[in-house]
Specification:
Number of domains: 1
Order of helices and strands: HHHHHHHHHH
Shape: globular
Helix content: over 70%
Number of helices: 10
Strand content: under 5%
Low-confidence stretches: none
Distance between the termini: 29 Å
Radius of gyration: 18 Å
Structural class: mainly alpha
Largest sheet: none
Length: 224
């Protein structure tokens, strides 16, 4: 399967000359494979948690946050758009893509971990979050243009999947130091998803990645 081969040997350019039927088939196979691997990872993690090899990592949510998280529109549309721009737009490296990706990424991370508020709320420290995001994005753009730090594509690809996965520790009780020790295991379903989404982003573009991301988020709701 091309996606699995890409994960093993990622490359910055992929041709996309497939018919619509082959494209739909590949999306379906990726969706099922990604979802299946994520479920297996989640089952293993839960099994280890029940055996107390890893600590309990669930957390309580405020009523407002619960409303956002339980809203299917946010799950299949808003979060995929926000997260794909933040964590995979820059896999196609241009000045604009780097700036926009870092802008969205910093906004997401600062909202969740610094200001402890929803990404979609501008009422709680909205201006500081925006100013911080713009400032860091400008710094990142300068570093990229001057090539002060330059990663090979395969390193950038794996890093994007890792960052995408780890930021989801916000869904769990990350204030517990023991949880942070096992952060990679706890966030493994999202890391796996990030690897497949990175492949789709390169082959089918950012909109393809957004569509797959939305399907991945919406599939559990359809099953339940």
């Amino acid at each position: 399967m091309d996606a699995v081969k890409f994960i093993r040997f990622p490359k910055e350019e992929l041709s996309n000359d497939e018919t619509i039927y082959k494209t739909i088939l590949e999306f379906t196979l990726i969706l099922l494979l990604c979802f299946g691997l994520s479920v297996i990872s989640l089952i293993i993690t839960e099994f280890l948690r029940n055996l107390e090899f890893i600590p309990s990592y669930t957390r309580e949510w405020s009523n407002v946050t619960k409303q956002v998280r339980d809203n299917i529109i946010y799950a299949v549309v808003m979060f995929p758009i926000l997260e794909e721009i933040a964590f995979r737009l820059y896999l196609k490296r241009t000045d604009l893509n780097v700036f926009v990706s870092v802008l969205f990424m910093v906004y997401m991370i600062s909202s969740a971990f610094i200001f402890n508020t929803s990404h979609f709320s501008i009422e709680n420290y909205g201006l500081p979050r925006i100013l911080i995001s713009i400032s860091v994005a400008l710094i990142a753009l300068y570093i990229y243009k001057k090539k002060l730090i330059y990663l090979k594509f395969k390193h950038l690809y794996y890093l994007s999947a890792l960052l995408f996965g780890l930021v989801h520790i916000y869904n769990y009780d990350y204030t517990n130091p023991e949880v942070l020790i096992f952060v990679v295991a706890i966030c493994m379903p999202q890391i796996i998803s990030g690897l497949f989404l990175g492949y789709v982003r390169i082959k089918y573009g950012i909109f393809g990645a957004i569509i797959l991301h939305g399907l991945l988020n919406g599939l559990p709701s359809l099953i339940i």
